[in-house]
Design goal:
Helix content is 33%, strand content 31%. The chain has 147 residues and is α+β, with helices and mostly antiparallel strands.
Length: 147
């Protein structure tokens, strides 16, 4: 499968679109049906973190999501120009979102993502902060429509 790339403006409404695209591409790539909810939720968390960072630091820059197959794995990379809140450093925000009005610790989303994805790697790249997640492929791919 060729890499599928999505770029979107840092608006919370676009996170849903990123989740839907990631789930569809994961299914088409051969990710087990049992893992699709984890893919959807992890992409939602990663993209929400990226939206938060962009809205605070670089609202005019798009968030980029790349979905691909690599060595028997389905990989998603979320790249954004802003720093990841909670990834370390003195400029980190003390919280990330809220639950019933109670601020959440900044690292909570990373803990959620780590629990959902099989592998998670965060790095600083020339393009910005990269959060890479992956899941194993089962090898079974659905038939293409109309075939």
């Amino acid at each position: 499968m060729a890499t599928v790339e999505v770029a979107f403006t840092p608006l919370p409404a676009h996170v849903r679109t990123a989740r839907l695209v990631a789930t569809a591409v994961a299914r088409r790539s051969g990710v087990s049906e049992a893992l699709l909810d984890e893919v959807r939720l992890a992409v939602g968390e990663a993209c929400s973190r990226a939206v938060e960072a962009h809205r605070q630091q670089c609202p005019a820059e798009p968030i980029r999501v790349a979905l691909s197959e690599t060595a028997g794995r389905f990989e998603i990379e979320v790249v954004h120009v802003g720093r990841v809140p909670g990834a370390g450093g003195e400029d980190d925000a003390p919280s990330s979102g809220s639950a019933d009005g109670v601020p959440l610790p900044a690292g909570l989303s990373l803990a959620v993502i780590s629990g959902l994805a099989d592998e998670v790697h965060i790095s600083e790249t020339a393009a910005g902060t990269s959060l890479r997640m992956s899941w194993p492929l089962t090898g079974a791919r659905p038939a293409a429509p109309g075939r």
